[in-house]
């Protein structure tokens, strides 16, 4: 198996980079022609969702050993196929992608129903294997008998190719560590944390949700994209959910220093530091878009980590297959996508990638619906948010990463006045989310139901990251070590989620 994977990696590395780049530019012209012809236009907005999980031991066989309870578990590949989930970077990961639905009352209900139905079925299957899928931003309890450092850095060399031992068998991921542009090490850059590896495996610490918003008219994508950049900071501030790493990754500096200097959303820092190189900033907050052609060109001209072979096929988007392949490593916190299996399915969409996986399904759908509502309302109301300088939007984003709801987001309200009042910022944002959802056909009470879980976070001034930090502080005050405090907090998180994942919300935890 390892030798076969190594051979596939060598085949990928044999692709001529100049030919790959030239074909990507040619493909970009195909897409731009189809855009001008209206191929990517649709009669309405459509929503979708990618939802990532990690697996843990469910505790049934750990009664005599509390240290192993809810430790990370590898998901057998046959089990992933059985539950209809997709593999992600690490062997512990599982990903669900929903079927795209029209943005209306029935479409959003269908999104939530599909997530619940498929997740409930998956939970039944994984329970039989002694494991549980967890919706969370960053795991902290390693597999039984291993340290997190060992799990994340384990690798072998097969015929000159470096293979991560706990990574899914994806040629793309393994090739990143073996290509000519790969760095000597892939390290995490976060306060008081030290970890470097010779593969991209440290990125498997993190999991996310990714709402998709498919635009009705492709030419409107740049305007919507720029609005998405303005809401990225405020929505990230609500969704922060990864304030801690596995304890063995921390430097020996003491709990109080770690608490004082840590971020509310380390997921952002992990993704950027592991996958960015000095000469290729692959993961970053993107700049504003001026035209739809510019969106295509940015993908085509993005730094290529590794050129990959492209198989021929009969799908519509196989006409620009190399550009699609390149898009697979076009990592931006908000990114445009152009694809479609057939000409009638062709779509231009925005993928919103800043939000960590959330405590419950209802919270995850709340972000999906709120983002979609904002994309409907802000441009229709000619909201002045895009009058805000791009640099301010970027500052908001990284302030939110560090301090969550305490970051004092800057926002231009509907009246054109900038405010840093948390109440005013979110009152304006939620009002427009509800407005957009009602414009899409929801009743006001239905729209409010989707937004309510996020309102509760503002009203209680508590995010999932705040909840985790508070738990750790309580355990420290009771005399626990820092490592034990993190582990106890994480077990509390999973226990709370057991009761609320499918039917409750994070507000029930408060």
UniProtKB/TrEMBL annotation:
SUPFAM superfamilies: Glutamine synthetase/guanido kinase
A molecular function GO annotation: ligase activity, forming carbon-nitrogen bonds
Pfam families found in the cross-reference section: GCS2
Protein name: Gamma-glutamyl:cysteine ligase YbdK, ATP-grasp superfamily
High-level lineage: Archaea, Methanobacteriati, Methanobacteriota, Stenosarchaea group, Halobacteria
């Amino acid at each position: 198996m390892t030798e076969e994977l190594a051979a596939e990696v060598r085949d990928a590395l044999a692709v001529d980079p100049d030919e790959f780049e030239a074909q990507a530019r040619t493909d970009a012209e195909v897409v731009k022609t189809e855009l001008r012809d209206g191929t990517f236009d649709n009669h309405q907005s459509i929503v979708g969702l990618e939802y990532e999980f990690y697996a843990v031991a469910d505790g049934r066989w750990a009664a005599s050993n509390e240290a192993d309870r809810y430790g990370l578990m590898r998901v057998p590949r046959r089990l992933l196929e059985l539950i209809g989930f997709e593999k992600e970077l690490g062997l512990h990961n599982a990903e669900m992608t929903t079927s795209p639905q029209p943005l209306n009352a029935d479409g959003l209900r269908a999104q939530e129903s599909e997530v619940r139905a498929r997740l409930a079925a998956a939970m039944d299957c994984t329970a039989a294997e002694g494991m549980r899928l967890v919706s969370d931003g960053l795991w902290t309890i390693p597999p039984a008998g291993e340290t997190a450092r060992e799990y994340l850095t384990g690798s072998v060399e097969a015929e000159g190719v470096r293979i991560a031992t706990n990574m899914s068998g994806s040629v793309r991921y393994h090739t990143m560590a073996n290509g000519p542009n790969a760095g000597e090490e892939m390290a995490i850059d976060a306060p008081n944390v030290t970890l470097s590896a010779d593969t991209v495996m440290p990125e498997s610490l993190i999991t996310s949700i990714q709402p998709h918003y498919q635009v009705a008219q492709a030419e409107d994508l740049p305007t919507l994209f720029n609005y998405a950049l303005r809401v990225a900071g405020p929505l990230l501030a609500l969704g922060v959910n990864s304030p801690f790493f596995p304890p063995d990754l921390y430097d020996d500096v003491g709990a109080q220093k770690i608490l004082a200097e840590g971020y509310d959303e380390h997921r952002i820092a992990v993704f950027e530091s592991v996958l960015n190189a000095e000469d290729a900033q692959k993961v970053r907050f993107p700049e504003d878009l001026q035209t739809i052609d510019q969106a295509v060109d940015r993908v085509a001209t993005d730094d290529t980590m590794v050129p990959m072979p492209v198989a021929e096929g009969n799908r519509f988007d196989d006409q620009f297959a190399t550009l699609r392949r390149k898009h697979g490593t076009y990592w931006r916190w908000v990114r445009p996508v152009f694809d479609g299996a057939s000409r009638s399915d062709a779509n231009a969409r925005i993928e919103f990638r800043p939000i960590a996986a959330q405590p419950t399904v209802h919270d995850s759908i709340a972000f999906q619906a709120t983002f979609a509502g904002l994309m409907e309302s802000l441009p229709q109301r000619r909201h002045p948010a895009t009058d805000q300088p791009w640099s301010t939007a970027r500052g908001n984003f990284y302030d939110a990463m560090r301090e969550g709801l305490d970051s004092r987001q800057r926002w231009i309200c509907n009246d054109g006045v900038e405010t840093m009042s948390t109440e005013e910022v979110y009152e304006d944002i939620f009002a427009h989310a509800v407005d957009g959802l009602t414009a899409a056909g929801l009743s006001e009470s239905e729209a409010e139901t989707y937004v309510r879980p996020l309102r509760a976070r503002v009203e209680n001034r508590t995010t999932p990251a705040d909840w985790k930090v508070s738990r750790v502080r309580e355990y420290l005050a009771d005399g626990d070590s820092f490592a034990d405090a993190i582990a106890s907090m994480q077990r509390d998180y999973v226990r709370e989620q057991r009761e609320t994942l499918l039917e409750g919300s994070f507000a029930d935890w408060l």
